[in-house]
C-alpha cells in the first residue's frame, strides 16, 4: 500500500494512496453478496442469483463503489494507526482510480488533533489568584440581603392583589423543612453565601482560562469550531423556542440572518473549542481523572433527568465534566 501524507492548514491532513490490485480485488465477492442479498430478480430467490445475472442487474460501477467503500472502511483505521494520525470527525474521501483488476486510488482529507503549545498554566493560575483584591476574597452576607430575599419570597406567595402572608414561624414552615423563622433565616444566609462563593469561583476560573487560552498556541481545526458553533446555535434556538418564538421570527425582529448570528458567535465558539482541548491537555499532563464510582453516580444523575439519553454518550459526558472539574480544582490549588 502506497501512502503519502501532506499537512494542510487548520490542523488537517491529506492522505493520498493506493490499495494494491490484490487487496482491492479481494472485496469483489463480498460486495457482490452484500448488494445481491437485497436484490429481487424474477425467477431467483434473494441472494441466490448467479454472478452473471447479478452483474447484469447491478452494473459494474455499483459493485466497484461497494468494493471501494468496504475496502476503505477496513483500511482507513489501519492507515491512521500505522501513520500515527490522531484523526477527528468524519473524513472526506475522494476516489481517484476505480476499475477492476487495478489498484484503488484515493485521497482522504481529515481533521486531526492539533499540536498545543500550552502556556505556563500554573504560573497564570497563581498570578490571577494573587491579583484578587482582599475585599473580593471575603464572602459576607448582610442582614439586608437575607431580609430582601425573604420579602421577595413573601411577595411571590401573595394571592393576586392580596396582602403577602404574615412573616412568622408558620410562614417559614410552609416553605419547606424549616423549624421556624430563625431556621429559615439561617439557611437562607447559608444559601446566599454559597451562591456568592460559586460566583466568585466562576469569576476566578474564567479569568484563569481566558489568560491560558490567550497565551497558548494551536492551529484549531475548523471542524471543532463548527461543531461548537452548531451547539451554541442549537442552544440559542432552544431558548428562543421556550419564549414561544420561532427562530425565523426572532431573526426578523433583530434584522439579522442565521449567518450574521453565526459570525457573532464565532469567536466564543473558537474559544470554547480551544478551552476543551486545553483542559484535556492539562488533564493528560497532570494525570487528572475521576474515579469510576464518581462517574457512575454522575451518569445515573444524567439518565435520571434525560431518560432517552444514550448511556455511552452519558458516560463520556460525565467523564468529561468531572475531568474538567478536576482540572479547575488543580488550577485553583496551584
Write the layout of secondary structure elements.
Elements: E1 2-8, E2 12-19, H1 21-25, H2 28-37, H3 51-58, H4 60-82, E3 87-97, E4 104-112, H5 121-130, H6 134-137, H7 143-156, H8 169-174, H9 181-215, H10 222-242, H11 247-254, H12 258-285, H13 292-305, H14 311-333
Antiparallel strand pairs: 1-2, 2-4, 3-4
Q: How would you explain this protein's 3D organization?
A:
This protein is of the alpha+beta class. It folds into three domains: about 1-110, Alpha-Beta Plaits (2-Layer Sandwich), CATH 3.30.70.1050; about 115-215, no CATH class; about 285-334. Helices cover about 65% and strands about 10% of the residues. The protein has 14 helices and four strands. The protein has helices at about 20-25, 30-35, 50-60, 60-80, 120-130, 135, 145-155, 170-175, 180-215, 220-240, 245-255, 260-285, 290-305, 310-334, and strands spanning about 1-10, 10-20, 85-95, 105-110. It has a four-stranded antiparallel sheet. Strand 1 and strand 2 (about 10-20) form a beta hairpin. Helix 7 crosses helix 9 (about 180-215) and helix 10 packs across helix 12 (about 260-285). The protein starts with a strand and ends with a helix. The model has no long low-confidence stretch (mean pLDDT about 90).
What's the pLDDT, averaged over the residues?
92
Order of helices and strands: EEHHHHEEHHHHHHHHHH
CATH architecture of the largest domain: 2-Layer Sandwich
Low-pLDDT windows of residues: none
The computed structural class is alpha+beta
* Secondary structure: number of strands: 4
What percentage of the residues does DSSP assign to strands (E)?
A: 5-15%
Amino acid at each position: 500500500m502506497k501512502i503519502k501524507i501532506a499537512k494542510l492548514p487548520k490542523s488537517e491532513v491529506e492522505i493520498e494512496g493506493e490499495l494494491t490490485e490484490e487487496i482491492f480485488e479481494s472485496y469483489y465477492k463480498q460486495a457482490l453478496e452484500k448488494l445481491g442479498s437485497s436484490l429481487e430478480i424474477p425467477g431467483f430467490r434473494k441472494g441466490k442469483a448467479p454472478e452473471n445475472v447479478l452483474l447484469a442487474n447491478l452494473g459494474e460501477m455499483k459493485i466497484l463503489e461497494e468494493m471501494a467503500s468496504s475496502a476503505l472502511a477496513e483500511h482507513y483505521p489501519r492507515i491512521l494507526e500505522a501513520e500515527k494520525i490522531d484523526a477527528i470527525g468524519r473524513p472526506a474521501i475522494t476516489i481517484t482510480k476505480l476499475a477492476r483488476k487495478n489498484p484503488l486510488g484515493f485521497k482522504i482529507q481529515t481533521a486531526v488533533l492539533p499540536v498545543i503549545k500550552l502556556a505556563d498554566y500554573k504560573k497564570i493560575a497563581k498570578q490571577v489568584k494573587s491579583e484578587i483584591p482582599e475585599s473580593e476574597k471575603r464572602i459576607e452576607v448582610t442582614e439586608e440581603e437575607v431580609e430582601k430575599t425573604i420579602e421577595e419570597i413573601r411577595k411571590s406567595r401573595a394571592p393576586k392583589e392580596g396582602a403577602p402572608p404574615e412573616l412568622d414561624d408558620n410562614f417559614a414552615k410552609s416553605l419547606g423543612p424549616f423549624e421556624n423563622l430563625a431556621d429559615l433565616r439561617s439557611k437562607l444566609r447559608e444559601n446566599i453565601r454559597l451562591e456568592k462563593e460559586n460566583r466568585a469561583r466562576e469569576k476566578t476560573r474564567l479569568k484563569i482560562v481566558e489568560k491560558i487560552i490567550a497565551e497558548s498556541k494551536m492551529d484549531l481545526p475548523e471542524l471543532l469550531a463548527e461543531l461548537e458553533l452548531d451547539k451554541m446555535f442549537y442552544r440559542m434556538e432552544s431558548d428562543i423556542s421556550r419564549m414561544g418564538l420561532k427562530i425565523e421570527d426572532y431573526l426578523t425582529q433583530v434584522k439579522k440572518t442565521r449567518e450574521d448570528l453565526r459570525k457573532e458567535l464565532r469567536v466564543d465558539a473558537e474559544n470554547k473549542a480551544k478551552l476543551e482541548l486545553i483542559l484535556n491537555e492539562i488533564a493528560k499532563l497532570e494525570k487528572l481523572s475521576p474515579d469510576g464510582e464518581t462517574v457512575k453516580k454522575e451518569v445515573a444523575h444524567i439518565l435520571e433527568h434525560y431518560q432517552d439519553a444514550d448511556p455511552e454518550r452519558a458516560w463520556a459526558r460525565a467523564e468529561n465534566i468531572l475531568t474538567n472539574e478536576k482540572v479547575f480544582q488543580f488550577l485553583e490549588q496551584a
